[in-house]
Amino acid sequence: xxxxxxxxxxxxxxxxxxxxxxxxxxxxxxxxxxxxxxxxxxxxxxxxxxxxxxxxxxxxxxxxxxxxxxxxxxxxxxxxxxxxxxxxxxxxxxxxxxxxxxxxxxx
Length: 107
Description:
This protein has 5 helices and 2 strands; from the N terminus they run ααααββα. It is mainly alpha-helical. The longest helix has 14 residues, at 69-82. It is globular.
């Protein structure tokens, strides 16, 4: 998986990483929405490029794309690596909110 992913250009690598957000098979319009790409031809070209490297698969019966579990895990790790570091206080993507103090009230 890592060898195939290493051969992707930055845009296609980002697209591959984003697909890890789909927990189940997805269709072309879902990929287009995720990638914010209105051009269906470009979406198809990206999906085909990923299929050529075994980083995405297609089920002809359901007409849906999917990632094998291990491929999705690798893509998810790639996406996590791309997120900016989490900061307390809810700033930025992936931020972890500051913990709230526990209130100790008597019952």
